[in-house]
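Onboarding guide, step 5: your first structure request.
Type a short instruction followed by the sequence, for example:

Predict the 3D structure of this protein.
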Amino acid sequence: MLNGMRCGASVWTAATLALLLGACASNRSPAPAQPTPEVVAEAAPQPQACPSGVPADTRCLGGQDSSGAFYLIALPKDWQGELVLHAHGGPFLGAPTMRRVEEDLQRWSIMPRAGYAWAGTSFRQGGVVVRPAAEDTERLRRIFIQHVAKPKFTVLHGQSWGASVAAQGAEMFDAAKPYDAVLLTSGVLAGGTRAYDMRLDLRVVYQYLCRNHPRPDEPAYPLWQGLAAGGKLTAAELARRVDDCLGIDKPAAQRSPEQARKLKTIVDVIHIPERSIAAHLNWATFHFQDIATQRSGGGNVFGNIGARYAGSDDDAALNANVLRYAADPAAVARFGADTDPQGRLSVPVLTLHGIHDATAFVEMENRFAQTMAQAGHAATLVQAFGEHADHSYLTDATYVGALNALKAWVREGRKPTPASVAAACVAAQAAFPSDCKIQPDYQPKTLESRVPARQRP
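The system replies with C-alpha cells like these:
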C-alpha cells in the first residue's frame, strides 16, 4: 500500500549511484543521470483476443518484451492518437504473467471505451521494486511507438503502488519528456520508507494482543522481517490465525468479548477499518519478507522507536510492551533510493484519491505535495479528493473527467483546480453514467496525524 527523502531516511535500489543519492536526499542532491531501458530490438506485438469487458471493436496486441515482461496494447476503433500508459498496483510477488495484464485491461476498460489506446505491462519481476518497473513501463511506450504509432498525447497513469512506479518513472525520464502528463490515482505516494510504517505498527500491536504471529512455539524473529528465515507460513494459515484472535471472519454477534476488544483496539490504534486488517497483515508479512530478503540488503527499513500508540484501553501498557525496532540507516537509504519520489516532475501531474481509502491513506497525498514543493515543482501538481472508500477503482466518469482536465492543461494551458476536475467529472457523466464524488474543498492532514511520528536515521 507510499515521500520525500531525508538524510539516511529511505532507500532501496540496485544502483550504486542511487544509493549515494538516497543517502542524503533531503539535501536535494542533483538528480541522478537519466536511466534508459537497454536499447534492444523489440519484437513486434502480435494480435490476440481482447479480454472480456473490452469493447468488441477494440484491437488488442500483446507480447513479451526483451526484459521478460508481458504486455498488452488495446486500440479502440477510430483511435485519435491518445495513449494511456498504465503502471499497475500491487505489487505482486510471483512471476510475471499475461493474466495479470489482462486483468488490468479489464479493470481499466474505461480507457478504450473513452477512445484512448491503453498499454500495460506485467513488469519483468514480482516484488516490492519500483525503478525497474518504471523502466519496463517506458520500454512499453517505446514498443508502442516502434510498432504501432507515435501518439499525439501520452498520459502516464499509475494506480495504487503503481503510482509510485509512475512518479519515479516520470522523474527518471524527465529530461526526455516522454509523457505529456501524469495521472496518479489512489497512490502510494509517501515513499516506501514512510508508507509502510503503519504496517510495522500493525504487526507489533497485533502481536502484543494476539501472540500468534509468530506463536510462542515457533522461532522468534524481528517482525520487520515479515517471516522467520525459512518460514513456511501460508496466507491461508495467517488468515486462520487472525480469525482465531480477532474473530474477523465472524459476524460481530458471534465474537467473544475478548476478540471484540482486541479487534476494536487495532481499529482504534492503527486507524484502519475491520475489513482492511487481514490484507494489511498479509502485506506486512509477505511484502516485508520480500523487502528484508531482496530489497534492503538484509537490514531493517522500518523502525518504531519513539512512536507513541494511542486509542487502546490501556495505552501505557501497550506502549511499554510492544516490540520496538530501530531502522538501519543503510537499509533505509537503499530502499528509499528505489521507492521514495523526489518530486522532480516537470510535466503536469494530477492526483486523485479517495478520502476514506483504507489501503493507501489519503494523508500520503499531503506528503507527496510537500515533496513536490521542496523540489520546486508545486506548480505542476494538482490534487483532487473524493468521498470514496474504494481503493482499487474510483468511477468511470472520474477517470474520464481527470483525463479531459489534463488534456486541457497540456493543450490549452488551462491548469485545473479541484473544482474544475469535479466539473469535468460531471460533464463526463453523460457518456459514462457513474458517480462523481470529488470534494473540491478537502485538504488532507499530515501523514503523522494518522501514523505516529518516530525516530528516523
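Each response can be followed by summary notes, for example: Confidence is low (pLDDT under 50) at residues 1-34.
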